[in-house]
Write a structure and sequence with these properties.
The chain is of the alpha/beta class. It contains twelve helices and 17 strands. Strand 16 and strand 17 form a beta hairpin. The longest helix is centred in the last third of the chain and has 26 residues.
C-alpha cells in the first residue's frame, strides 16, 4: 500500500513530541541533545518562552488577512531589517526557496526595466543549494536534485567557486547577476574566501550585474554577525534569508537595495501567506532577540569554544574525523567514515546532527547554546566515534 505521506524523505525512526531549550523528547520519553536545530532553524532552541508568547498572543488576535491589506507586523519587521542591514526593502515569504524565487525574479526584472530584457542569466557556484523548486534546483546545478525533473530551467550557469578566470569566461551579454552562499551549507560547510567575495562585488560593479547572497543558512546570527557577509565587508544588492529569522516558525525574506528592487512594482510578485500576522509576530520577536546587546557576542564566544573542543575531538579520533570546517555556530566535521552512518551512531547516543555534502556532518546548535552543552555534545560525538574505532579493531582482529 502506498504511504499516505509522500515518501520523499529518508526519515529516522524516531518521532519527537516535546522540546525544551536545546533538548528534544521522543515518544518513548528519551531525551536528545539537538545540534541540528531543525537544520539551522531553531535559533533559540525549542519552546523559547518569548517566542511562544509572541505566537500565542498573536494567535488570540488574528491569524491571516492576506496581502490585500496592510500588515503592521510586516512594517515593523521590515524596519528592523532595513535599519540593521544594507537593504532598503524586504519581501516576506514562507521559506528560503520562496526567498530565492523572489531574488531570481527581481534580478531579471531589474534589467528588464533598465531596457535590457536580454539579461536574464544568473551565474551560481558548484556545490550550491538554493532550494527545491524547479528554478532552485537549476540554480544549484547539482545532478542529484535535477535528475528526473528536466528539462532544466533555463537561465542558470554554474562555475567553480574561487575561480575568477572561469567566472569571467562565463559572463556574457545575457548575464544578469551572480548568486552565492557566503558559506555553503548543504555543499559541505565551505566558507567562501573573503578576497573571492570582494572580487565578486568588483566584477558585478564593473559589468553592471547584481550580486545576490543566499544567507538562508549562514545568516541571522549563525556566524556571530547578524549576517555572514559582514565579516568580509562586502554587501550584496539582493539577499535571501530564512531559517533563523522565524526561530522555528516558517518564515523567509528577500532583502534588497532600492535600486535592485525598482522593477518590483504592484502586481509583479506576490504571496498569499507571505508575511502573515503569525509569522510577523514571531519574526519581530526573534530578530529583536538577535539584535539585543550581547547576543552575537555570545555566539562568537561559544563558537570559538566549540571549535577548540572539536579540534581536540579530531585529535582524539583521527581515524573517524578528518577536519573541521565552518564559522561561528555553523560548523562541520569532514568524516573518514560514512557521514550517514555517523549521524545514526550519534543519534543512538542521544545527539542529533545533520549530514551535508562531501561526507561532512553539520553541527548547527541553537544560538543560545552554553559551553556546558557544547561539552555534552562533544562527549556524545566521542562516544559515537568509539563505536567506529571498536568496529575497526574487531575487523582487524
Amino acid at each position: 500500500m502506498f504511504p499516505s505521506v509522500l515518501p520523499t524523505y529518508n526519515r529516522a525512526d524516531v518521532a519527537f513530541v516535546r522540546g525544551e531549550g536545546p533538548y528534544l523528547f521522543a515518544e518513548d520519553g528519551r531525551r536528545y541533545l539537538d545540534f541540528g536545530a531543525g537544520i539551522a532553524v531553531n535559533a533559540f532552541g525549542h519552546a523559547h518562552p518569548r517566542l511562544v508568547n509572541a505566537l500565542t498572543t498573536q494567535a488570540n488576535r488574528l491569524w491571516h488577512t492576506s496581502n490585500l491589506y496592510r500588515v503592521p507586523g510586516q512594517e515593523s519587521l521590515s524596519k528592523k531589517l532595513v535599519d540593521s542591514t544594507f537593504a532598503d526593502t524586504a519581501f516576506f515569504t514562507n521559506s528560503g526557496a520562496e526567498a530565492c524565487e523572489c531574488a531570481f525574479k527581481m534580478a531579471r526584472r531589474y534589467h528588464f526595466v533598465n531596457g535590457h530584457p536580454e539579461k536574464f542569466r544568473i551565474i551560481t557556484f558548484a556545490g550550491a543549494f538554493h532550494g527545491r523548486t524547479l528554478a532552485g534546483i537549476a540554480a544549484g546545478g547539482q545532478e542529484k536534485y535535477l535528475e528526473g525533473f528536466g528539462p532544466k530551467v533555463e537561465g542558470f550557469d554554474q562555475v567553480p567557486p574561487n575561480d575568477l578566470k572561469a567566472l569571467e569566461a562565463a559572463i556574457t551579454p545575457a548575464t544578469a547577476a551572480l548568486m552565492i552562499e557566503p558559506i555553503q551549507g548543504e555543499g559541505g560547510l565551505h566558507p567562501m574566501p573573503p578576497e573571492f567575495l570582494r572580487s565578486l562585488r568588483k566584477i558585478c560593479d564593473e559589468h553592471g550585474l547584481l550580486l545576490i547572497f543566499d544567507e538562508i543558512q549562514c545568516g541571522v546570527g549563525r556566524t556571530g554577525k547578524f549576517f555572514a557577509h559582514e565579516w568580509v565587508g562586502v554587501t550584496p544588492d539582493i539577499m535571501c534569508v530564512a531559517k533563523g529569522i522565524g526561530g522555528g516558525f516558517p518564515l523567509g525574506a528577500c532583502l534588497a537595495t532600492a535600486e535592485a528592487a525598482k522593477g518590483m512594482t504592484a502586481g509583479t510578485h506576490g504571496s498569499t501567506y507571505g508575511g502573515n500576522p503569525l509569522g510577523m509576530a514571531v519574526g519581530n520577536e526573534a530578530i529583536g532577540m538577535v539584535l539585543e546587546p550581547g547576543f552575537l557576542d555570545h555566539v562568537q564566544s561559544v563558537g570559538s569554544y566549540m571549535r577548540q573542543q572539536l579540534a581536540g575531538l579530531i585529535a582524539e579520533h583521527p581515524s573517524v574525523f578528518e577536519e573541521l570546517r565552518g564559522q561561528g555556530l555553523m560548523l562541520g566535521l569532514k568524516m573518514r567514515v560514512p557521514n550517514t552512518d555517523f549521524v545514526a551512531a550519534a543519534r543512538k547516543h542521544g545527539l542529533l546532527i545533520v549530514g551535508a555534502g562531501e561526507n561532512v556532518v553539520r553541527l548547527l546548535p541553537p544560538l543560545v547554546i552554553t559551553e556546558e552543552q557544547v561539552r555534552e555534545a562533544v562527549k556524545l560525538l566521542s562516544d559515537a566515534a568509539k563505536d567506529f574505532e571498536t568496529q575497526k579493531t574487531t575487523v582487524a582482529a
